[in-house]
Amino acid sequence: MTSEPEETRTRGRAVGVYVAHPHPSSFNHALYETVVTELRARGCEVAAHDLYAEGFDPVLSAAETDTVGAAAGTPDPLLTRHRAEVATLDALVFVHPNWWGMPPAVLTGWVQRVLVPGVAYKLGTADGEPAGLLKAGRALVLNTSDTPADREEREFGDPLQRVWAACVLPYVGVTDVRRTVFRTVTDATPETRAAWLTRAREEAAALVG
Protein backbone atom coordinates (compact mmCIF):
# COMPACT_ATOMS: atom_id res chain seq x y z
CA MET A 1 0.00 0.00 0.00
CA THR A 2 1.48 3.34 -1.04
CA SER A 3 1.17 6.38 1.16
CA GLU A 4 -0.31 9.56 -0.19
CA PRO A 5 2.12 12.37 -1.10
CA GLU A 6 3.18 14.65 1.72
CA GLU A 7 1.66 17.68 -0.03
CA THR A 8 -1.71 15.91 -0.15
CA ARG A 9 -1.56 14.87 3.49
CA THR A 10 -0.99 18.43 4.74
CA ARG A 11 -3.03 20.43 2.22
CA GLY A 12 -5.91 22.24 3.93
CA ARG A 13 -4.68 21.51 7.45
CA ALA A 14 -5.24 24.60 9.58
CA VAL A 15 -2.83 25.11 12.46
CA GLY A 16 -2.89 27.84 15.09
CA VAL A 17 0.54 28.85 16.41
CA TYR A 18 0.69 31.07 19.49
CA VAL A 19 3.76 32.63 21.10
CA ALA A 20 3.71 34.30 24.50
CA HIS A 21 6.89 36.24 25.22
CA PRO A 22 7.28 40.03 25.42
CA HIS A 23 10.70 40.22 23.72
CA PRO A 24 10.65 39.85 19.90
CA SER A 25 14.33 38.82 19.99
CA SER A 26 13.72 35.99 22.47
CA PHE A 27 14.47 32.37 21.70
CA ASN A 28 10.74 31.76 22.07
CA HIS A 29 10.20 33.94 19.02
CA ALA A 30 12.91 32.05 17.14
CA LEU A 31 11.04 28.81 17.92
CA TYR A 32 7.75 30.40 16.87
CA GLU A 33 9.09 31.68 13.56
CA THR A 34 10.76 28.34 12.85
CA VAL A 35 7.52 26.44 13.44
CA VAL A 36 5.44 28.85 11.36
CA THR A 37 7.91 28.65 8.48
CA GLU A 38 8.03 24.84 8.60
CA LEU A 39 4.27 24.43 8.67
CA ARG A 40 3.71 26.86 5.80
CA ALA A 41 6.41 25.10 3.77
CA ARG A 42 4.39 21.91 4.23
CA GLY A 43 1.26 23.49 2.79
CA CYS A 44 -0.54 24.17 6.06
CA GLU A 45 -2.82 27.15 6.58
CA VAL A 46 -1.18 28.79 9.58
CA ALA A 47 -2.89 31.24 11.91
CA ALA A 48 0.17 32.79 13.56
CA HIS A 49 -0.36 34.85 16.70
CA ASP A 50 2.15 36.82 18.76
CA LEU A 51 -0.17 37.50 21.69
CA TYR A 52 1.92 40.34 23.14
CA ALA A 53 2.32 42.07 19.78
CA GLU A 54 -1.41 41.77 19.11
CA GLY A 55 -2.21 43.36 22.46
CA PHE A 56 -4.45 40.48 23.50
CA ASP A 57 -6.24 41.45 26.71
CA PRO A 58 -5.86 38.56 29.20
CA VAL A 59 -8.15 39.98 31.88
CA LEU A 60 -11.25 37.85 32.40
CA SER A 61 -14.33 39.97 33.04
CA ALA A 62 -17.12 39.13 35.49
CA ALA A 63 -19.43 38.46 32.54
CA GLU A 64 -17.07 35.74 31.29
CA THR A 65 -16.93 33.59 34.40
CA ASP A 66 -19.81 31.20 33.65
CA THR A 67 -18.41 27.70 33.14
CA VAL A 68 -21.66 25.98 32.12
CA GLY A 69 -23.71 28.23 29.87
CA ALA A 70 -22.43 28.99 26.38
CA ALA A 71 -20.32 32.14 26.33
CA ALA A 72 -22.11 35.28 25.24
CA GLY A 73 -20.79 37.56 22.54
CA THR A 74 -18.10 40.06 23.36
CA PRO A 75 -17.48 43.65 22.23
CA ASP A 76 -13.75 42.83 21.95
CA PRO A 77 -13.14 42.23 18.21
CA LEU A 78 -9.80 40.48 18.79
CA LEU A 79 -11.36 38.07 21.27
CA THR A 80 -14.24 37.42 18.86
CA ARG A 81 -11.72 36.62 16.13
CA HIS A 82 -9.75 34.22 18.31
CA ARG A 83 -12.85 32.36 19.46
CA ALA A 84 -14.15 31.94 15.94
CA GLU A 85 -10.80 30.91 14.58
CA VAL A 86 -9.86 28.32 17.22
CA ALA A 87 -13.01 26.34 16.41
CA THR A 88 -11.79 25.86 12.81
CA LEU A 89 -8.27 24.63 13.54
CA ASP A 90 -6.97 21.10 13.03
CA ALA A 91 -3.95 21.44 15.34
CA LEU A 92 -2.51 23.86 17.90
CA VAL A 93 1.02 24.94 18.80
CA PHE A 94 1.90 26.92 21.93
CA VAL A 95 5.35 28.45 22.46
CA HIS A 96 6.16 30.00 25.82
CA PRO A 97 8.65 30.14 28.69
CA ASN A 98 8.22 28.50 32.06
CA TRP A 99 7.53 31.39 34.43
CA TRP A 100 6.96 30.31 38.02
CA GLY A 101 5.68 26.97 36.75
CA MET A 102 3.00 28.77 34.70
CA PRO A 103 2.53 30.15 31.19
CA PRO A 104 2.87 33.94 30.93
CA ALA A 105 -0.27 35.82 31.98
CA VAL A 106 -1.20 36.74 28.41
CA LEU A 107 -1.43 33.06 27.45
CA THR A 108 -3.22 32.06 30.64
CA GLY A 109 -5.76 34.78 29.89
CA TRP A 110 -6.06 33.55 26.31
CA VAL A 111 -6.97 30.08 27.61
CA GLN A 112 -9.52 31.50 30.04
CA ARG A 113 -11.14 33.90 27.56
CA VAL A 114 -10.94 31.92 24.29
CA LEU A 115 -11.46 28.28 25.35
CA VAL A 116 -14.91 29.00 26.74
CA PRO A 117 -18.10 26.94 26.91
CA GLY A 118 -19.91 26.83 23.61
CA VAL A 119 -16.62 27.37 21.77
CA ALA A 120 -14.16 24.81 23.17
CA TYR A 121 -16.31 22.57 25.36
CA LYS A 122 -19.80 22.03 26.70
CA LEU A 123 -20.77 21.14 30.23
CA GLY A 124 -24.22 20.06 31.40
CA THR A 125 -23.65 20.80 35.09
CA ALA A 126 -20.84 22.43 37.02
CA ASP A 127 -19.70 19.06 38.40
CA GLY A 128 -20.28 17.11 35.19
CA GLU A 129 -17.87 15.71 32.62
CA PRO A 130 -16.98 18.14 29.83
CA ALA A 131 -17.41 17.32 26.16
CA GLY A 132 -14.63 18.85 24.09
CA LEU A 133 -15.78 20.80 21.07
CA LEU A 134 -12.52 21.65 19.31
CA LYS A 135 -11.82 19.78 16.09
CA ALA A 136 -8.10 20.10 16.79
CA GLY A 137 -7.07 16.61 17.84
CA ARG A 138 -3.37 17.38 18.20
CA ALA A 139 -1.32 19.99 20.02
CA LEU A 140 2.37 20.74 20.42
CA VAL A 141 3.72 22.73 23.36
CA LEU A 142 7.26 24.12 23.15
CA ASN A 143 8.68 25.49 26.39
CA THR A 144 11.90 27.17 27.40
CA SER A 145 13.26 26.86 30.92
CA ASP A 146 16.29 27.68 33.03
CA THR A 147 15.55 24.90 35.51
CA PRO A 148 17.47 21.64 34.97
CA ALA A 149 15.20 18.69 34.24
CA ASP A 150 16.08 16.69 37.36
CA ARG A 151 15.41 19.65 39.66
CA GLU A 152 12.17 20.46 37.83
CA GLU A 153 10.87 16.96 38.41
CA ARG A 154 12.24 16.53 41.92
CA GLU A 155 11.20 19.85 43.41
CA PHE A 156 8.28 21.02 41.30
CA GLY A 157 6.85 17.97 39.53
CA ASP A 158 6.80 19.66 36.10
CA PRO A 159 3.63 21.76 36.60
CA LEU A 160 3.44 22.80 32.94
CA GLN A 161 2.96 19.18 31.93
CA ARG A 162 -0.07 19.01 34.20
CA VAL A 163 -1.40 22.35 32.96
CA TRP A 164 -1.38 21.41 29.29
CA ALA A 165 -1.60 17.62 29.16
CA ALA A 166 -3.96 17.04 32.09
CA CYS A 167 -5.96 20.21 32.73
CA VAL A 168 -6.41 22.30 29.59
CA LEU A 169 -6.10 20.42 26.33
CA PRO A 170 -7.94 17.16 27.11
CA TYR A 171 -10.79 19.26 28.54
CA VAL A 172 -11.44 20.82 25.14
CA GLY A 173 -11.06 17.62 23.12
CA VAL A 174 -7.36 17.52 22.23
CA THR A 175 -6.29 13.91 22.73
CA ASP A 176 -2.75 13.98 21.29
CA VAL A 177 -0.65 16.38 23.38
CA ARG A 178 3.07 16.63 22.61
CA ARG A 179 5.53 18.72 24.58
CA THR A 180 9.21 19.54 24.32
CA VAL A 181 11.24 21.60 26.80
CA PHE A 182 14.45 23.37 25.78
CA ARG A 183 16.73 23.89 28.76
CA THR A 184 18.69 25.62 30.10
CA VAL A 185 18.09 28.36 27.59
CA THR A 186 19.87 31.43 28.98
CA ASP A 187 23.34 29.89 28.89
CA ALA A 188 22.83 27.79 25.76
CA THR A 189 25.47 28.08 23.04
CA PRO A 190 24.58 29.15 19.48
CA GLU A 191 25.21 25.57 18.39
CA THR A 192 22.82 24.22 20.98
CA ARG A 193 20.16 26.73 20.01
CA ALA A 194 20.55 25.81 16.35
CA ALA A 195 20.05 22.15 17.25
CA TRP A 196 16.96 23.08 19.24
CA LEU A 197 15.50 24.93 16.25
CA THR A 198 16.05 21.81 14.16
CA ARG A 199 14.20 19.82 16.81
CA ALA A 200 11.34 22.33 16.72
CA ARG A 201 11.08 21.94 12.93
CA GLU A 202 10.97 18.18 13.32
CA GLU A 203 8.28 18.37 15.99
CA ALA A 204 6.17 20.69 13.82
CA ALA A 205 6.54 18.38 10.83
CA ALA A 206 5.54 15.35 12.91
CA LEU A 207 2.49 17.18 14.23
CA VAL A 208 0.98 17.46 10.77
CA GLY A 209 2.62 14.45 9.10
How would you summarize the topology of this molecule?
Layout: H1 6-10, E1 14-19, H2 27-41, E2 45-50, H3 51-54, H4 77-86, E3 91-97, H5 105-114, E4 121-122, E5 131-132, E6 138-145, H6 149-156, H7 159-168, E7 176-183, H8 190-208
Parallel strand pairs: 1-2, 1-3, 3-6, 6-7
Antiparallel strand pairs: 4-5
Q: Categorize the overall geometry.
A: globular
User: Count of helical segments?
Assistant: 8
Strand content: 15-25%
Order of helices and strands: HEHEHHEHEEEHHEH
Verbal overview:
The chain has 209 residues and is an alpha/beta fold. It has eight helices and seven strands; from the N terminus they run αβαβααβαβββααβα. The protein has helices spanning 6-10, 27-41, 51-54, 77-86, 105-114, 149-156, 159-168, 190-208; strands at residues 14-19, 45-50, 91-97, 121-122, 131-132, 138-145, 176-183. The strands form two sheets. Strands 2-1-3-6-7 form a five-stranded parallel sheet, sandwiched between helices. Strands 4-5 form a two-stranded antiparallel sheet. Helix 2 (27-41) links the parallel strand 1 (14-19) and strand 2 (45-50). The longest helix has 19 residues, at 190-208. Mean pLDDT is 91; it is low at 1-9.
